[in-house]
Amino acid sequence: MTIKEQAAVMKLNSTKMAVTTLEERNRALEGIREALLAHKEEIFKANKEDMERAGKEGIAAPILKRLKFQEEKLQEVTTGILDLIGLPDPLGKEQMRRELDRDLLLIRESCPIGVIGVIFEARPDAMVQIASLCIKSGNCAILKGGSEAMKTNKKIFEIIYQAAAAAGMPENCMFQIEARSDITELLECHESVDLLIPRGSNEFVQYIMNHTKIAVMGHADGICHIYADKTLDLDKAIPVILDSKTQYTAVCNATETLLVHKEIAGELLPRLNEALRAKNVEVRGTKEVRQIVECEPATEEDFSTEYLDLILSVKIVEDIQEAVDHINKYGSHHTDCILTEDPKAARLFMQYVDSAGVYQNCSTRFADGYRYGFGAEVGISTGKLHARGPVGLEGLCTYKYKLFGNGNIVADYAEGRKQFHFKDL
Amino acid sequence: MTIKEQAAVMKLNSTKMAVTTLEERNRALEGIREALLAHKEEIFKANKEDMERAGKEGIAAPILKRLKFQEEKLQEVTTGILDLIGLPDPLGKEQMRRELDRDLLLIRESCPIGVIGVIFEARPDAMVQIASLCIKSGNCAILKGGSEAMKTNKKIFEIIYQAAAAAGMPENCMFQIEARSDITELLECHESVDLLIPRGSNEFVQYIMNHTKIAVMGHADGICHIYADKTLDLDKAIPVILDSKTQYTAVCNATETLLVHKEIAGELLPRLNEALRAKNVEVRGTKEVRQIVECEPATEEDFSTEYLDLILSVKIVEDIQEAVDHINKYGSHHTDCILTEDPKAARLFMQYVDSAGVYQNCSTRFADGYRYGFGAEVGISTGKLHARGPVGLEGLCTYKYKLFGNGNIVADYAEGRKQFHFKDL
Hints:
2 copies of one chain form a homodimer. By secondary structure, chain A is α/β, with parallel strands linked by helices. In chain A, 42% of the residues lie in helices and 21% in strands. Chain A has a 7-stranded parallel beta sheet, sandwiched between helices. In chain A, strands 16-2-1-17 form a 4-stranded antiparallel beta sheet, with no helix packed on it.
């Protein structure tokens, strides 16, 4: 079968997946957890082969680190599955219960989206997390992982699918695609696939968005900012800036730009510069910054760049308004933080900054589904529609309106014989 | 200024609109209501000119009816504005309040989407409703109404914008575009416009979707079904079918196809056929239907057709499963109804039918923002993402995550010095 045909079959069967009970879905997750543990040696072996090939091909160290899937990662993902089992059912949640009239009851209830295609990087743990999230949320999934992890993914997928099917999940509730050329075919499945979630580079996500009619939930750049207000507490500020920049640089929620209120710059920048140097961070500052500390010059381009590296651009601003304007202009609407002890300044910043996450006095690195208590995430959305920020189970659900009547007709209301009374129950 | 430039300015100013208070937005709505009433003669005069021109151009009667904007419509829309003023603030609503740790508080709060472009048919009342919804939800709006209503729209827009500005809404919080060619330019404004809501024919909505990078919320066809189960109550069923088909035929929530359980067909169809004939409805039935009542033959194509006319296609099915499969295959995921006295059958139908609205024993014509108590609607979404079904204020909002810390850094959690405790407050 072609991918289009497989997707069409999946679409038809997706209603079966949608009506599985929480118990059935949790049982499948438990089955998957046990199967992954039982078959771990096979997975580790496949992963060693992937690692060897990647090593020979000279793949960069950070990618190798993500590719590695041995005991430690297995423990992480199986613990993650346990967490997910513990989360409440995202399906069948009543979001509204309204009497339109005495005998006409409207209920809005959450339900799965249907068929979701996820394209993710060469991280075998992502395969486990994404498949688990899709099962818990009652969605069918088409999974495409990065090709460097091909053998590991294939093995993990087999184990997951067999365990899920054995636990009673519908046949064909998920399938894997492997070749990069398969993506092209997947992009054409707008009649069967309800949502695509591409993860990876900005260029890749843009490519996907521009080549499909399927709705895409993804993130563009992650250009996160910290604005150091004049009212900040230096002892909190410096660790937060260091953590935001250095705790993990190659990720979208790492901070790329620091904006500093002119009145605090003289105090903050020298201490900060020293701390950043100690962590091997290259500072790129505007002219005003370089009058206070020695650093590389920052150009206009720096402020639009997602470094994903140990580089921080720094700019001095007149006031909070200039900071907000800079962020809304150069930022990617991902996550931006204000360092301040003044609740009014924080409120202003949070109101005016148009980003999925607006923070006060904490690291931008907290922007993550796990850290928000979502169990895991399929991605982080910088779009504003449907889901914004880290996307967990809730972002994989939609809703339907159920209307229970007693022979009610619209003509009675249109012609004044009956009136709606709209009572929320 | 070009439309692109105007949209870019609007985008920058959209944060000002986002932070207006409920009182300010309601005051603007009240100002608009009063201004519309005060300037009604000018509006009526402009509308008479539109009507005259449309009459000369031989515009069809249903379109003329929608185009007409005199005393009655004015009363409707100004009453609608009063209703809207009475609705609670859709902004700043807490959707989540979770302590991630003792001193790390996550709040998810609703906020406006930003800049919304709405393209709607030649109905001056739609101009008032859409502009009002955008103001109440703190969104900036680019409005394009059908060209037949050009003079009326121009006048109404002037009155609305002046009243809104006088009441303190930000300058340029809305603008109107008039030429059809302006739409082409609007479609290119993906850097400034967050959402497009096109209303009109299916072809038009598809055209918009295929020619822009902006997110589009719209509906495809409205092929709504009624499934008459064997357990139905005939006295409820027949009025509901009649209402669904005939109360207003030219709309997306009118029923186009009736599916009848084989065991009830002999009883239902003769009575129904008579009632439909009395309402001038042409019945198109499958072979099995025509063995019971005299009617036109239905082809495969009929079941994929949105008639928007006094035509009903009818098919006999073996059971509820066949009905569900038919609806999921041929339907447009808009609104589908089961007629049954059996709660189990209703539950099954509602679970398996993959539509925005799933109804029991009531007319599909109830699928409407006003009738759901949303005050008004900007459209009905047959997509599954963001908003599904009638879209009112809530569908014009998104949310942001606010995280309040005390110098918290991720390294403490990653390295085990601190633990999240995820407590919903």
